[in-house]
Amino acid sequence: MAILEVLTIPDPRLKQESQPVERFDSSLRDFIHDLEQTMRSSPGGVGIAAPQVARFERIIIVDVSRKPKIQSHGRLVLINPEILEWQGMEKGREGCMSVPDYTGNVIRAKTIKINAYDESGQMRSYDCEGYEARAIQHEVDHLDGVLFLDRLVSRRTDLFQRKVYSEKSVAKSD
Ligand code: NI
Fold it and tell me: Which pTM value belongs to this model?
């Protein structure tokens, strides 16, 4: 088990496109374990994508169940995810472990339908809404080298500096 190093802007590797997973083996599951631990090491961490730790494969983890009053599927490991349907639009605030100093308002679909493989290579389907749907859309973007910063309508009105903490590590994990 390990907490992996998270790439942060302006690292150009965050713009890299990730490739589909082809082998569902124990090394994949070991990596997913470390990826999840890295996500959970961040107090507000509700999602992470493999390319954020420089593994350019289409793997994301989302778990918004620790947020109060939010409907969710709990812990989701989504491998080679495909968003099949988008409905509605909603503006909401997002943060990212790779963008430690800012949050931003981004417009996302309210509900999505998604297909993805789980860790054992089983294809699954999910209907997600609200905050969980937002988190998934944010993480799927990472697989295509897209950050929430790329989706701001206006940097002037939709980008917010985070509070300054005394320790860089604390700021990073908020
Ligand atoms: Ni992110």
Answer: 0.92
Interatomic CA distance for residues 50 and 97, integer angstroms? 12
Judge whether 139 counts as a catalytic residue.
yes
What is the residue extent of each domain of the chain?
Answer: 12-163
The string of pLDDT tens digits covering residues 78-93 is 999 999 999 999 999 9
Question: Would you identify the CATH topology of the domain 12-163?
Answer: Peptide Deformylase (3.90.45)
Residue 128 Cα, ligand 1 centroid: separation in angstroms? Answer: 18
Determine whether 125 is exposed, middle or buried from the number of CB atoms within 10 Å of its CB (0-12, 13-18, 19+): exposed
CA distances from 44 to 96, 97, 112, 174 (A): 10, 9, 23, 5
